[in-house]
Amino acid sequence: MTSETATLDPPGSIAIVGAGPLGVEAALYGRFLGYNVTLIEAAGVGHSQRVNYELPLPVMPHECLSPLAVSALHAQDAELLPQTLPMTYQDWVEKALKGIVAGDLLEGRLRCPSRVTKISTVPVELDEEDSEDDDPIPPDFRLELTSVYGQADPLDSEAVILAIGDSAEIPLDFSLPADYFFRIGQSSTGNLAEDLKQGRQEIVTLFAGLAGRETLDLYRPRRSE
Fold first, then answer.
1. Which InterPro entries does the entry mention (predicted)?
2. Buried-exposed string 186-221: b where 16+ CB fall within 10 A, e elsewhere
3. Is the dihedral of CA 108, 216, 69, 113 positive or negative?
4. C-alpha Rg value of the chain to the nearest Å
5. Which domains occur in the chain, in start order?
6. What is d(CA 96, CA 94) in angstroms, rounded to the nearest whole number?
7. pLDDT (tens digit, 9 = 90+) per residue, 204-223?
């Protein structure tokens, strides 16, 4: 997690690794706040769910999709959002997650297929005005991306969010914990509804810290006027 002073104002850049349910949600949350988000995926949106495609989704529609996700889908086409049960994992991925990524907020921000093979830190080049600032500027992160064709394509970003669960590791050239470097969705209970709820709370806490606003929560219902 970041320190209390490690804030990042929009449109700061955030690289999110993993386009599963929580990675897509984190990307959407960041875009709602105005951040410059890049979503990176090695195989495909919701790929980790493909093994369950034919199974009914064991949660209600309002549990598998956050209020932001529902809003994003309805803004495009109300029929994109499945409303009745049973709803399969395939419905969730094809009609919901992919619909969100293709929507206005995330359109053109997915880099897939691209595998992150290493993350390092690089110093920020300062102009003369910034170099006179007494506060040190933290380094950016450099993500080494490799396409299916073996082409290398690095990406620099001010913050990184790993949404790849606990089964994958990416080599790092820096020590953890590190400011502006996050992991979400590492703890799995086997209960999809609980895991999604926990992951979304991690997203809320993460962005509240970046914004320097402890009470920031885009999932909290708005009060009626």
1. FAD/NAD-bd_sf (IPR036188)
2. eeeeeebeebbebbbebbbbbbebbbeeeeeebeee
3. positive
4. 18
5. 13-126+138-211 (3.50.50.60)
6. 6
7. 999 999 999 999 999 987 65
